[in-house]
Structures are given as structure tokens and as C-alpha cells.
Specification:
The chain has a domain at 3-49: YefM-like domain (YefM-like fold, 3-Layer(aba) Sandwich), CATH 3.40.1620. The chain is built from 5 helices and 3 strands. It has helices at 7-12, 14-24, 43-51, 55-66, 76-79; strands at 3-6, 28-32, 35-40. Strands 1-2-3 form a 3-stranded mixed β-sheet. The longest helix is centred in the middle third of the chain and has 12 residues, at 55-66. 5% of the residues are buried.
């Protein structure tokens, strides 16, 4: 959980906040009018965050490894994220 502090108070306590982040391992969220504005994280935390692939990238990578993309028009619905197709039960495959 991150420690929240208003931007006006953060200006006055910047050196202390930096010490809390670097030496205390805390994450600090600076707010303006109660809304998150920026976050202070250690350089080590930033490296970890940047090294983690985003969730969307993980899904795309997983799907790409399961089935290569086809250029046929039958693959078009999948391109747009449609997960199901209607098939007439009276017509065989």
C-alpha cells in the first residue's frame, strides 16, 4: 500500500519522502485535490515495473504462440477480439 500526501505538503517534505522511498521501501503517491498525481518509487522498483511485460503483451504473446495468425478472411473476427461464432446446427461442418 502506498502512502498518500498532498502536493503542497510533498513540496515541503521532499527530502524526507525520498528517504522513505529509498531507505524505507515505501511508495508515495502525491495527490492534488485528493486525486493521484504522481508516484514516487525507488529506482529498483521502477526497474522491476519496466521489466514486467504488460498484461496485454502477455496475452498477445500467449495467443501468438498457440496459433499462428492466418491472413484468410475466416480469421478476421478473431482479429477484433470476437471469441465466439454462430454456427447453424442444421449445417454440418
Amino acid at each position: 500500500m502506498a502512502y498518500e500526501i498532498p502536493v503542497t505538503q510533498a513540496r515541503a517534505e521532499l527530502a524526507e519522502l525520498i528517504n522513505r522511498v529509498v531507505y524505507g521501501g515505501e511508495r508515495v503517491v502525491v495527490t492534488r485535490h485528493g486525486k493521484p498525481l504522481v508516484a514516487l518509487v525507488s529506482a529498483a522498483d521502477l526497474e522491476k515495473l519496466e521489466a514486467e511485460p504488460r498484461q496485454e503483451e502477455q496475452v498477445i504473446t500467449s495467443l501468438s504462440s498457440v496459433r499462428p495468425q492466418s491472413t484468410a478472411t475466416a480469421a478476421e473476427p478473431r482479429r477484433f477480439g470476437i471469441a465466439a461464432e454462430h454456427r447453424d446446427p442444421r449445417i454440418g461442418d
